[in-house]
Amino acid sequence: MEAGARGCDFARLPQNYCNTIGLDSPPNGPLDRGHRADGLCQTRRVFGVLIRIDSVTKRYPDGTVAVDNLSLEIPDRSITVFVGPSGCGKTTTLRMINRMIEPSEGRILLDGKDLAQQPVNTLRRSMGYVIQNAGLFQHRTIVDNIATVPRLLGWSKDKARERARELMERVGLDGALAKRYPYQLSGGQQQRVGVARALAADPPVLLMDEPFSAVDPVVRKGLQDELLRIQAELGKTIVFVTHDIDEAVKIGTNVAVMRTGGHLAQFAPPAELLSNPADDFVEDFLGADRGIRRLSFFSTAGLGLLTTPIVAVDSTAEQITERSAGDVPYLLVTDVEGKPLGWSEPALLTAGAVDPARLLPYGRPFEHGKESLRAALDGAVLSPTGWAVAVGADGRVTGVVSQQTIGEAIRAAHAENGADGHTDGRTDGRTDAKVAG
Amino acid sequence: MNVLHFINSFFSDSAHWHGYDGIPTRMREHIQYSLIALAIAAAIGLPVGLLTGHTGRGGNSVAFVATAGRALPSFGLLVLMFVLLGLGLTPVMIPLVVLAVPPILVTTYEAVRSVDPSPVDAARGMGMAESRILFNVELPVALPLILSGLRSAAIQIVSTATIAAYVSLGGLGRYIVDGLYQRNYEKVVGGATLVAVLALVTLGIFWTVARFAVSPGVRRSS
C-alpha cells in the first residue's frame, strides 16, 4: 500500500519516528511495514487485529470489579465503540489500553506485544488521547497545544508548529485561531483542538473517552461527521467510549455494548446489533425504535421510483391529463427548475394557475441512492399523501415513491441481508439518515 | 505637630541621607534581610508545596505546618533565638522564615491542587513525564496563586524585618527602635514610612512579575 494515499504524512516525520513510537520491532501478525530509501516508515500494516484484550479483569482494592474477564479483538483501522451505562467499565477498558489503569488480571496486546512490557510514556505517545472536556492547556496557544506530542518526541519548535497548523486545517479549524488561547474558543472548537492534538504525531491508535458528550447536539453531529471524514482519510485505529447508543451506532465500525459490572454484553457491527440484539439488556439499551434505526443501513439505490406523476408548475392541461393517467391519486408539482413545490390531486390542478400555497406538503425529500431507506420512509410518513420525493444532488426531483413501495423494499432488504442486516451501502446512507431520527 | 510634619522634617534633614545610619544604608540592609528570608522560605515552601500539591499526599502535614507557623509569635521567637544563639543574622532569619513559609507552602499546595484535572489527565495520557506535567502543565496554571502566596510572604517579611533592630542589627527598624528609645518620634514615623513604602514597592514588583510571567491564557480565564 502506498502511504500517501492514506494520508499518512510520513515524509514529514523525523528520521527516528518509527523508533520513537515503537514501530521498529519485528512484526507479529499480518503486518506490512517497510522503510523508504530515506529511512522513513512507509507503510505500517495491512488489515488485521491491532489490539487484543485478553481475559482482562480490573479489580480495585475495595473489591469493586470494574471490568470482568473481558476478551475482545479491536481490528486495525476501524472505529471500535465501547458503549454502556455508567459504571459498566467502558472508560476503565479504554484507560487500560494506554496504561492509565493497569489490569489486575489478563493482558492487552498491541500488534501482538504485551503492553505491560513496553515503556509507558513511549507507548502513550504512540496513541492519541482525546478526553471529554478536551483538557487543553490553558496557558498555551492553540498551535502550541496541538504541537505538544511532536515536541515531546523531540521535534523542533518550528516543525512542530508547522505540523500543528496542518492539523488545524485537517480538523476544520480556522488558521486565524492558531495564536488564540483555549478560553477564547467555543466548546466545539476546543474539542476539535483536542482531536488535532491527539493526531499531531500521526499515532496509529486514537483513544477517545466520551469526547463529544459535553457539546450541544448540533455541534456534536458536526464533530461526529468530521471524525468519520478524518477516519476515512487517515485510517486510524480508533477506540471510542460513549454512553450514547445513537453515537455508537453512527460512528462505530464495531460496537461493544457493556453492562454494569464490566461484562461485555455484545460485540458486533451496528447493523447486526440493531437486527440481532444478543439479549434483553442490549435490546433495552438500543431503545424502542431500533427497527426504524436499522433502516439507516439499507440503501435507497434499488428503490423503484415513479417518474410519471410529476408536473411542472407551468404545465399545460394536456400534460396534466397525460401525467395523471394510470389512476395516480396525486401529482407532484415542481417549479420550472424541477425542484419540488407540493402535491395536489389531479382534479384540483388547473393549467397555468397553480397556487403553491394550496398544495399539500411533500415532507423531506431524500437523496436517491445516497440516503438510506430510513430517510425515504421518513419523507413518505411526513407527507399527508404517503408518498416520498426523491431528489438528486442538485435538489431536482428524480422521482416519487409510495409507502407501499418503500415497505416492499424494506422487506426485500431484510430478506437479502438475512439476520445480520449488514450492507455495503451503510456508510452512504447512515450519516444523513440520522438527521431524521 | 502632626504626622505629615514629622515625615517632612525627617526626610528633609540631610543628615538622614548619609553615613552608616543614613536612609540608603538602612534601606539596603532591610532589603538584604528581606531577600535572604524570602529566598530561604521559598526554598522550603515552594518545592514542598509543589510536590505535595502534585501528588495530593501530605495535605494534613501542610495544614499542620501552616497553623503551627502562624501561631508562633515572631518577636517571642526572636528573643528565644537571641538567647539561644546570641547575636547575629541567624536568630533574625529564623522568625522571618517561620513567618513566611506557611503562606508560601499553603498557597502553593492549594494552587497545584486546584488545577483543572482534565489537562493533567490529557498530559499523562499523551505520555508526558510526571516532572514535565508538574512544571509544564500544573505550574503555569497555578502560577498566579503561587505568586500571591510569595507576595504576601514578602510583605510580611518586609514589615516584620524591623525586629532585627532589637538584636542590634540594622535595617529600617533601627529608626523605630532608636527613635522610641530617644523619644525622637520624627525618627519613628520616618522609619515606619520607609517600611510602608518598601512594602508598596514589593507589591508593585510582584504585580509586574505576574504581568510578565503568567500566560495571557491563564490570566484572562481565571
Number of strands of chain B: 0
Portion in strands of chain A: 15-25%
- What is the count of distinct domains of chain B? 1
Give the oligomeric state of the chains in this entry, treating copies of one chain as homo and distinct chains as hetero: heterodimer
CATH superfamily assignment of chain B?
MetI-like
CATH 2nd-level architecture of the largest domain in chain A: 3-Layer(aba) Sandwich
Give the biggest beta sheet of chain A: 6 strands, mixed
Task: Describe this protein's structure.
- The complex is a heterodimer of chains A (437) and B (222).
- With 437 residues, chain A is of the alpha/beta class.
- Chain A folds into three domains: 3-45, no CATH class; 49-288, P-loop containing nucleotide triphosphate hydrolases (Rossmann fold); 310-436, CBS-domain (Roll).
- Chain A contains 16 helices and 18 strands.
- A six-stranded mixed sheet of chain A has the order 8-9-10-5-11-12, sandwiched between helices. In chain A, strands 4-3-6-7 form a four-stranded antiparallel sheet, with helices on one face.
- The longest helix of chain A is centred in the middle third of the chain and has 18 residues, at 217-234.
- The radius of gyration of chain A is 26 Å and the shape is elongated.
- The model of chain A is unreliable at 1-47 and 419-437 (pLDDT under 50).
- With 222 residues, chain B is mostly helical.
- Chain B has a single domain (3-221), classed as MetI-like (MetI-like fold, Orthogonal Bundle), CATH 1.10.3720.10.
- Helix content of chain B is 80%, strand content 0%.
- Chain B contains ten helices and no strands.
- Chain B has helices at 3-12, 23-55, 59-71, 74-85, 90-113, 117-125, 130-160, 173-182, 185-213, 216-221.
- The longest helix of chain B has 33 residues, at 23-55.
- Chain B is elongated and about 65 Å long.
- The model of chain B has no long low-confidence stretch (mean pLDDT 92).
- Chains A and B meet through α3, α5 and α7 of A and α6, α7 and α10 of B.
